[in-house]
Prior knowledge:
With 76 residues, the chain is of the alpha+beta class. It is built from two helices and three strands. A hairpin with a 4-residue loop joins strand 2 and strand 3 (34-40).
Amino acid sequence: MEVRASNEPAQRLYQHFGFELVGRRPRYYQNPEEDALILWRNHLNTPQTAQELQRQWQYWRSRVEVQGWSLVDCSY
């Protein structure tokens, strides 16, 4: 996973899901020039991760539905 060094909200989101900073690509992005942070998470393809993602999906779906909106399940 890559993210701009200045994109702190995205970094927090990825960290919330267990991603850790493992590297940096200097001047990777242009306009403006900026480093890319490389984030990684081990063990993504496990039953525990699938359960956590399902739990998060249900949580956010219920939050959205309270507002009168809906999410479409795009899993295959």
